[in-house]
Queue: 3 jobs
Job 1
Amino acid sequence: MSRAKAWIGPVIAALVIGAVTHVAVVVAAPSRIMEKAMGRLSGDGARTNRWTHAPRTSPASRQIVRPSPDLAYSSCVYDLSKGPVLITAPAWDDYASLSIFAANTDNFYVVNDRQMPPGGARVVLVQEGQPPPKVDAKVVVSPSTRGVALLRYLAPSRERFAAAAAARKSAQCASLAK
Amino acid sequence: MARSATSRTGSVLRWGLAIIAGLVVGVYSAQKVMTSPGASFATARGGIWRTSLDVGSTTANPYVRAVVARRGLLGLSSQETVYYNAVVDRDGQPLREACDYEVTGKGLPARWWSITLYAEDDFLARNADDAPSIDATSIVAGPDGAWKARISRERAGAANWVSSKAAGGMALSLRVYNPAPTVIADPLSVDLPVIRLLGCRETSQ
């Protein structure tokens, strides 16, 4: 075999391996990034199925990229492996939303203050095939076992942030597993 | 014998090299497309602003998904919020802390909007100015709704100011919450704010 010919196979292999690796890294990136974010937001799992209310966004807010300084954020890393999770968002007198993200970053559910019932949003998150519990809440199927629920309350000033911080205190994120 | 051993060694080396090269190029090129400053999840670009309606979307392609995960994790889907990003001024020059800019705009067809300055690392710039953004609730506008804001290290008496102190290379993020259907139909048809360079202070960099 000539020297050049001996390289044909390896070069083709390198190209194929390169392409497959490239695609694999890109496809796996969202879940990998989300997994890390869930770890940060939940204190490595210590705060699962409960809300964590972030302080007012400042240069020190470095858990999630590009936080808005005009919104009050709360996050709940949920885990449905033991059973459904009840998530509630108290009403707010300005823009507010409850959004839920799957482990692959998909925003599969969002409801804002104008779409919420007057008392606020009540959602029970279940896995596919999991029988919904008998609670007075909208049943939402999560495409993944774990994910993140987020509250955004529009609160551009210090005063509004303090008010939002008081309003969100009664928010619930709790496993209904017995 | 000796010759065949040499050729076997050569063959092992070639294949080994091929595998390593493939892996390195695959990982490197993937990181590159996700992290380069130009890496954007934008599928639509106007003069200054870029946007994508695919943020948080369940149908986004793998590249959009990867860059959104890096640059806009936990972003809302476009029915709720449309996110625009600017890294250049109206002349196409990269936004820099060493330069002062004026942003001009009018109200946007949405319930609420804001413009936030992010440093190179996609977090708020590390300064104590408490002026990281302007938003619809606090902008000082004229009777016709038109406003202008200064983006600079100093306020210099501006009614609307976003501090770029300690930002380095920077980006502006425009959030349009509960956009009107026209925004979702064609996000670049909207009269978006314009970023104009006022001047640079090269010596102070």
Job 2
Amino acid sequence: MGPIGEDQFFFLMQGLKWTVLLAIVGFIGGGIFGILIALLRTSKNKVARTITAGYIGVFQGTPLLMQLFVVYYGVALLGIDVNAWIAVAVAFTLHASAFLGEIWRGSIEAVPKGQTEAANALGLHYVSRMKDVILPQALKISLPATIGFLVQLTKGTSLAAIVGFIELTRAGQIISNQTYRPLLVFGIVGAIYFIICWPLSHAGSRLEKRMAKAAR
Amino acid sequence: MRYTFDFGAVLDRAPELLWGSLGTVGLALAGMLLALVIGILGVVARSSKSEITRAAVIVFVEVVRNTPFLVQIFFIYFALPLMGIRLNPTVTAIIALGINGGAYAIEIIRGGIESVSRGQIEAGFALGLHKADVFRLIVLKPALRAIYPSLTSQFIMLTLTTSVCTSIAAYELTSAAQRIESDTFRSFEVYFTVTAIYLVISSLMMGLFALISRHYFNYPTR
């Protein structure tokens, strides 16, 4: 058995950096495409609604690990030489855009119909109606679920380890193999994830409770 | 660069994919069952008189829900032998899936029971119903109906999560895929096909859950 010293800890922290970066990139990229998907999903155009419903269905009906594999090897087939980091980031962006799109579709539909009617009566066109009236209210409604998904996504980045990308979990695996102390190493790795995810989960559920109380 | 797709190499291994799919479904069903048992026991323990038991359940739920499944399965995989328990990877995977799903089930079931209002239970007693009848008719069935949508969507998630069990070489679809990939080097074709199989499995499960719901919970509520 080897000791878990400063070097090992530093290696874990380097992994953590990639975990956090992946989660942030996936969340921001997924957020940008997710809002587009939510808007198309709630649009009047039937074709757009069907396509986005299919997109969401595929991503919610298949394992994240498979999505990672397909994108990872799919990008390579395109003949462009991209590194693992980009491929994995693209996969998480697509994954997050489907889930956030579905969450935000729900919140857009949860905004009372009267708001849309009032905006129409005031003569607001689509962009202004969405940007100034519907989306700000929808954003507030969606906050608990959005934070919940951010936790899911952060935990999900661990699957990049199976593709071979060195983030926190993969770093843990490597150190575990070096030191033969799997319980200690995975205990530490788990604790690091917990320190990131728990405050988020907690904030999300507190927000949810407060909003449920306000709605009563 | 031109790439020619060759799904033939993958389709040649169709029997393996079929067995892998059955492994995935089996793993998922066993995991669901264990999750349900842990969920129910957890809810009972969470309303225990002992403060330590209640706190233990809360800590269990929070820890499991805020750490990745991959880390949990590694931890369990290495922890069991140290406790003197030697199991094959597939059984270890079922235990990990059950523990993970169980933590979510505890929260879902608790919410369902809390959704039955006190007044209804009192009304049941006032009508002279037996304690067992009150529980079965007034608490259990409406609570089941209330938790059914979130519990079943959690079960679908659990089914998709089984793919992570490939990391400890459990017997299921993803590990079958990885074997085929290393033999044929048709990575994209293999994973594309297997993703489609997962989509079929999860769609069938969703359909089945919807059918059960229409059958059992189809009664008027007001």
Job 3
Amino acid sequence: MSFRIRMILPLIATFVAAVGYPLFYSFYLSLTSYKITQRWDSHFVGLNQYRDVFANSDYWSAMKVTGLFVVIGVFLELSLGLAIALSLQRQKRFRDFTRSFLLSPMFITPIAVGLMFRFLLNQQLGAIPTILDKVGFSYDFFGSGNALFTMIMIDTWQWTPFMVLLILAGLESLSKQPFEAARVDGAKPFYTFRRITIPMLAPILTVAILIRSLDALKVFEYVYATTRGGPGIETQTIQYFTYQTGIQYYRLGNASAMAYLLLIIVMIIVVVLFKQIEKTRRL
Amino acid sequence: MRKRESSWGILSKLIITFSFIIVAAPLLWVLLASFKTGSDLNDPTLVTFTPTSENWKKVFSSGIFQSAGRSAFVGVITVAISIVLGSMGAYSISRYKTGKSLTRFGILAAQVLPPAVLVFPFLDLAYRLRLSDTLVAVIAAHLSFVLPVVTWFLIGFFDAAPKEVEEQALVDGLDRFAAFRKVVLPQVAPGMGAAAIFGFVLSWNDLFYALILAPGNAATLPVRIAGFNTFRGVELGAMCAAILVSVVPVLIASFFIQRRLVRGISGGAVKF
């Protein structure tokens, strides 16, 4: 066996065991009526589970909720992240302290962040609604119509730092020459930002958006900590819905079909995006 | 020109100050609440009160340190396996283009997998092997997402590392594995550090897998904290203390790793 194969074999073996095996097994599960409470009574049902999932309006509602969450959340995080990273780059004093403090939310266990905001935003016992109330402004953060946006704000609080980290790293790796040239030519700051900073950052922004979107799709902790999907099913995200079906109702077969359908949809989106990126790169 | 410069400067200071408040205020409020008694908690805006240590005592005696220990154990084992296997594999992929774009794509695609796809097979297998509610199941599940991320990072670092030194080492008579271990690895050490930190954080923070695979006796820190989810006034203070137990080490750690992380990432990890 050649050196390169010997080097990669342990990785591939572990990869197959930890990713490949469950991937195929869950596809098999999705074709059965498997329930963890009645393991002896599992039989092959083919694509019936998928038909059920397709016909399940709660599933599509969860898809929509997740989609809104991802798109709005990532957009907010990207905009704020750019503003904060550019500000941090200019900063001279207390640099290390500010940076590490502003980056810290992304390292906190998401469940702790969820519980923290559940407490702070609670209608009766939370500080924020109470203060808002005192200035004559009443807002129910977990009420109907507001809860999903609250969820997005929690995500933004925790994950804008991730955008800041990637953009900051990107800014520091940019070559200084174009900026010098722009300065010598007397370019206005906004023009420099739009014509030099953004295009040069584009590759890292793409990566940041991609990583963050894929991660936001998996949102579970905030829902688990705060609303448990409510009011109604307004904040029921796809990950939470699958968890409920599989764990609370023990319907592993059904839940696997849900997860697989999600996987297919995500894969299609990723492949299309990749093609798009490749295309713009060639231009 | 000068004037415009300074107005940008003021704006950026405002942005930093504002973000600072947004990050600090919730944490400070939870800190305050963790020293309040049940009845003081009924008034959320109360700032002056007689502090109590009851909440902290309750949390400290709840086994939260054992849970933190378990989380650390899972994180260290997962990251250690990922770094060893990942660096060897990533080196092979980066230098010898092993498996061409297929391996690279496979590793990237693994990061796209929704955890809901993988978790039920792990659960079922854990049941069959009588490993449910043990850390073995959690470590196996964490490998499924830490290993691809760490490997992906490392491929980027190996791509960016210069080849000359290692070729010189081969000429000098080191065999290829020795050259890898003694010459190549030290070159990517900062990147490995960043990748290890990232992997550890991912594992440390995971609730989804741990909650499903080990909800009881082998509860990790996130699972334990989720258990404090309550709205009875008496236990609200304890919930706040539990939140802080997970926040404080992170604040300290982020101070030490921040600069390394920024440098590690700009060193070439995040590229296609």
